[in-house]
Amino acid sequence: MGHINPTLGIGQKLIERNHKVAWTGIMEIPPNEFPERGKFFLQESKELTELMEGLKDKNSISGLESIQFVVEEFFIPLGKWMFSETLKVIDLFNPDVVINDMQTFAGAFGAYVRGIPYVTSVTNATAGTEVMEEMTKVLEWEQNLLLSLQKELGIFSEKNISFSDKLCLVFSTGDFIGSENFPESFRFVGPIISRPSMATFDWEKFRASDFPKILISMGTTGRGERQLFFEKMVAAFTDKHFTIVAVAEENLLPCWPKNFIVQPYVPQLVLMKELDVVI
Fold first, then answer.
1. Residue 185: closest CA among 133, 244, 117, 231
2. Which residue stretches of the chain have pLDDT < 50?
3. pTM of the predicted structure, to 2 decimals
4. CA distance 163 to 127
5. What are the residues whose beta carbons fall under 8 Å from the beta carbon of 157, sequence distance 6 or more?
6. In this predicted structure, what is the pLDDT of residue 220?
7. Helix 136-152 / helix 76-93 crossing angle, nearest 10 deg
8. Cβ atoms within 10 Å, residue 137
């Protein structure tokens, strides 16, 4: 949900201004998180299911190996598979503008092919900055993969079009990232703090505690990485004078300490007002 959340806030505001807004993707958005008048087009197939299943075998890899795996074995195949499906959605919904996630290349490719202006949603602003420029070989390798994918899909642009050269919405600030070397298309809009959220939460247990309250979340990671991480968090905070809100599946670990509240989705923006620390 980390890559989707900012677009939910933007979409909600557009809907309030009487625009028609739709999303498409490979995972359904929980109804209590989705704008009431928005539309969602789910993309699914046996091939996609097999692709997702293949990720489970690689949960423990890290570092450059993890970058290689996620790009070669997930982002590129996903972009290839989603391209035709995204074109169908674009033709059906007939949008004036497409917003594509930085890692969902099919949105940009589809808009480009149909001649529709597109904006890229950037949730990791180190892409294209001096942080990544120190990894020149990695960048060249990724660019070549994307150019090859474009040609395979019949897009013969000499440049990588997965990022819009007109506008990239970065949901952060330059100061926070610690760099000034950004493309001209990058516009730092900060976090989106207004978005629909009706996620249920154990407020009674949360507010009954007088201990400092800590939110722990890993964002978009593999299950294996989350399991190792939360095992360390449990070891550190079990029976300590803290109330822990862990954003995780309850079945991720065999059992959780009594001072933990464990949910896969939480009303994070509301919670922020009552937290002491976020990890």
1. 117
2. none
3. 0.79
4. 10
5. 112, 150
6. 61
7. 50
8. 8
